[in-house]
Amino acid sequence: MYGEPDDEELAAEEQEASLKAWEKHYQAERTWEDLEEDETGRLRMGTGDKSYRDKRRKIALVAANSHVCKGMIRFLYVVLDLSLAVNEEDMRPSRLAVVSALMYKFFREFFSQNPLSQLGLVVTRNGIAERLTELSGNPEAHIAALKEHLDAAGDMSIQNSLEQVQSSLAQLPLYGSREVLFVVSALSTCDPGNVHNAINAAKNAKIRVSVVAVAAEMVWQPRMLPSVVLGLTSRVPHKNKLSTCKC
Fold first, then answer.
1. For the purposes of burial, counting CB atoms within 10 Å of the CB of 73, is it exposed (0-12), middle (13-18) or buried (19 or more)?
2. Each residue of 180-210: pLDDT tens digit?
3. pLDDT tens digits for 108-156?
4. CA–CA gap between residue 165 and residue 99 (Å, rounded)
5. Is the distance from CB of 190 to CB of 83 less than 8 angstroms?
6. DSSP readout, the chain?
7. Which of 149, 139, 146 is closest to 115 using CA atoms?
8. 20 burial class (0-12, 13-18, 19+ CB within 10 angstroms)?
9. How many C-beta atoms lie closer than 10 Å to residue 149's C-beta?
10. Torsion sign across C-alpha atoms 232, 173, 205, 134
11. Is 87 exposed, middle or buried (CB count within 10 Å of its CB: 0-12, 13-18, 19+)?
């Protein structure tokens, strides 16, 4: 028969059981036993587990010399197609009403999920691209700017839109991802020159381009964009699917 544990043993067991996970980790290592006091009264590491300290020093050295981009910061331009195609009524009350409402929601959710990132807004109509807002972290500023410029006219232009955003994104540091999101309703693009030059320039600047096509399938030029610049493409035949698209 074993004797009953005394009060000191019970107290030690209760203290160990009450330790949190991180405390148990250091309790097992007992790193405080490696501390020694030198002749000046300062604490220093003693002769404890030298192999463990060497391993920790090696890990810290590798981490200090590594160049890792975690992608926590995103620089995103949203290019919104405001050509006459957004006035189509295949979505009620119109494509423009549905897309604009979802853009307001997207702006707020983007910063909720990416608090360190920045977003800018470009609209394309009449064959040109207009930058409504610069890159910033204020969703309400983008919403207010879009509400004041919801007039649809003419055709969209992929080339002018890419050149407009590239002039801003190409100057940004590489620790953040450079991205463009096209939200298009038109079936064609009106470009002043060779759109391939703008696509290749975006690729060389490491700009990731994604496309959301509202309703019908796009022509080959916007459809080829994601495959060239490593983005995503989505076709949304109705507004319920449009609200589930991810960027």
1. middle
2. 999 998 888 899 998 889 988 988 888 999 8
3. 999 998 999 999 999 999 999 999 999 999 999 999 999 999 999 999 9
4. 21
5. no
6. -PPPP-HHHHHHHHHHHT--HHHHHHHHHTGGGGEEE-TTS-EEE-SS-HHHHHHHHHHHHHHHH--------EEEEEEEE-SGGGG--SSSS-HHHHHHHHHHHHHHHHHHH-TT-EEEEEEEETTEEEEEEEEES-HHHHHHHHHH-----S---HHHHHHHHHHHHTTS-TTSEEEEEEEE--S----SS-HHHHHHHHHHTTEEEEEEEESSPP-HHHHHHHHHHT--EEEESSHHHHTT---
7. 139
8. exposed
9. 13
10. positive
11. middle
Token pair listed for 10: 């019970």
How long is the chain? 247
Residue pair 183/127 in contact (Cβ under 8 Å)? The answer is no
pLDDT digit string (tens) for 24-76?
555 555 566 666 777 677 776 665 556 666 766 776 666 665 554 445 789 99
Which residues 6+ apart lie within 8 Å of 195 measured at CB? 158, 159, 162, 189, 221
Overall pTM surpassing 0.70 (yes/no): no
